[in-house]
């Protein structure tokens, strides 16, 4: 893999895949060094005087221009860009503003479904009676 030289310390040779991470760490170690950042690739750090020239010859600018203007075909529209989707109004039978609808009762649902329930805050005799009733209810539903 290709090695790149760190602009903060010329002795640093970093793999291209690790370069962005290295630049972040090295920037913290060298707060006194100020570089201009290329608008096309944030790993291109340059001196202010070189930025204008670099922007005109940056290889990442060529990729952006090729994508934007589709240089291969000569057209200015990109075939990868899809046309906007027309929004359609969907008809719906639900009326969420209707206040006369019965609300959901989880206790009622659990008492009718095949769900093992537990009772909290009851006396031991009440818990035992509830467990027996639940056992009978569930056995009825399975037979």
UniProtKB/TrEMBL annotation:
Residues 3-30, 35-62 form the CHHC U11-48K-type domain. It holds the Pfam family zf-U11-48K. The keyword Zinc-finger applies. One of its GO terms (molecular function) is zinc ion binding. Keywords: Metal-binding, Zinc, Zinc-finger. InterPro entries: TRM13/UPF0224_CHHC_Znf_dom, UPF0224_FAM112_RNA_Proc, Znf_C2H2_sf. The keyword Zinc-finger applies. This is CHHC U11-48K-type domain-containing protein. It comes from Tabanus bromius (Band-eyed brown horse fly).
